[in-house]
Amino acid sequence: MPARTNKREQILQAAVLSFGEVGFNSSSLREIAARCGVSHPGLLHHFPSKEALLTAVLEHRDTDERRWFPRSESGLDVLRNLIKLVEHNVTVPGLIGLYVLTAAEATNPAHPAHDYFQRRYARLRRDTRRALHRIRDEGDLHAGVDVEDAATMINALVDGLQVQWLLAPAEVDMPTILRRHLQSLVTRKL
Amino acid sequence: MPARTNKREQILQAAVLSFGEVGFNSSSLREIAARCGVSHPGLLHHFPSKEALLTAVLEHRDTDERRWFPRSESGLDVLRNLIKLVEHNVTVPGLIGLYVLTAAEATNPAHPAHDYFQRRYARLRRDTRRALHRIRDEGDLHAGVDVEDAATMINALVDGLQVQWLLAPAEVDMPTILRRHLQSLVTRKL
DNA sequence: GTCTATACCCGGATAGAC
DNA sequence: GTCTATCCGGGTATAGAC
Fold first, then answer.
1. What residues contact residue A114 under an 8 Å CB cut-off, 6+ apart?
2. Which residues of chain A lie closer than 8 angstroms to B21, CB-CB?
3. What pLDDT sits at residue B2?
4. A50: which residues sit within 8 A by CB, 6+ positions away?
5. Residue nearest to nucleotide D10 (CA to C1')
6. The whole model's pTM is what?
């Protein structure tokens, strides 16, 4: 293995910043390279194409995200961890900008990350449904909650809050609003 | 006045399509011009710059949107009209793509539409708060509804649903999910 | 009003030296 | 591994003919 290659990591972080600010489409490899003190072909040595860089950024983000949802917890703990994740997110606005903008771009079927985001949202809805079913099995879900709708709604709420929060951080309290909504679904304290 | 200039309208529609597909940043004036059978400088004759075109598109969209919210209605009717607007929106995915993507891009303070979207969301929250207060005054709001949070939430829900719907139209029923959420806030049938 | 032609810049990607 | 140099396409915008 190479002595100690943290250049990849530096490039990834610079890419997160750039993608978050102007999106994947408008980001330039030259600009990203300049941010971490490497030349444009130097960057392409580590990531063979711009699309490969995007893929690496998204996978990196996924890995980070999964750490917030360890296994063997109660259904309620999944919701609690989601709140914790959002509480963490307000400390990394660049990453949120990256996510919001890339997801919006990727609604276009021609975007290189289109399939990734289709699969991602299908998975998010499925995971949220599972958590809600588990909460119901544990007797903690309010009667009358439609699990299918609630799962779609929770993920929509998180996404929509991010846009408003990025535009007006002082006026939109993401974690609190999310917590109150989730609390309205369950009978026990979150 | 000119004999009959609908070229502006044609260009606006082509711009909506292009902005909706790849966003403002990645759209090209040449491509937009080609869509409506005009040359690139021909387009610039009607709109002096790309940014002017974006402004015109957003104002055009605003005007259309306002038509869904006539005055002198009850608070509940505002929510009913919001549902009708979303029911209409599912018939114009290009416009929704434009909106989602432009809003995401505009979270960047350097984006030409940043101020527009900051003002827009402040206004949306204010208008939604007013409608909810009116519903409360009319005795139709459920007890325990926090108007401030509910207003932010409703707008976040609409935005977030759009992303999921664009990625999976068959799996996300925007109008129904919105209606059920709004119904959960009020005591009378929507 | 709408065109052709063009100026000028920046994008992704590659070749090849060190 | 990282560089310089370069290719080629495409971006906004302008000048000037018709």
1. A106, A107, A108, B167
2. 108, 110
3. 39
4. A24, A27, A29
5. B28
6. 0.95
Q: Tell me, rounded to whole angstroms, the distance of Cα B42 from its chain centroid.
A: 28
Distance of CA A69 to the CA centre of its chain: 13
Q: Environment class of residue A72 by beta-carbon count within 10 Å: exposed (0-12), middle (13-18) or buried (19+)?
A: exposed
CA distance B81 to B85: 6
Euclidean distance between CA atoms B52 and B47, whole angstroms: 6
DSSP summary character for residue B49: S
For each successive 10 residues of chain A (190 residues), what is the average pLDDT?
69 95 94 95 95 95 95 91 98 95 95 96 98 97 97 98 98 98 98
What is the pLDDT, as a whole number, of residue B5? 59
CB A41, CB A30: distance < 8 Å: no
Cα A85 to Cα A61: distance, rounded to the nearest angstrom: 13
Cα separation, B157 vs B159, whole angstroms: 5
Residue B186 backbone phi and psi in degrees, to 5: -120, 160
A133: left (phi over 0), alpha (psi -120 to 50) or beta: alpha
A156 and chain B in contact, CB less than 8 A: yes
Q: Kindly list the distances between the CA atom of residue A156 and the CA atoms of A10, B34, B157, B172, in Å, as whole numbers in the listed order.
A: 32, 36, 5, 10
The per-residue pLDDT for B174 is 98
Q: What is the C-alpha to C-alpha distance for residues A15 and B129, in angstroms, rounded to an integer?
A: 39
Q: Which of A104, A114, A172 sits opposite B163 (nearest CB)?
A: A104
Distance CA A32, CA B28 (A): 23
**Upper half-sphere CA count for residue A62 (Cβ side, 13 Å):** 13
First to last CA, chain A: 46
* B155: exposed, middle or buried (Cβ count in 10 Å: 0-12, 13-18, 19+): buried
Among residues B138, B135, B57, which one has the least CA distance to residue B101? B57
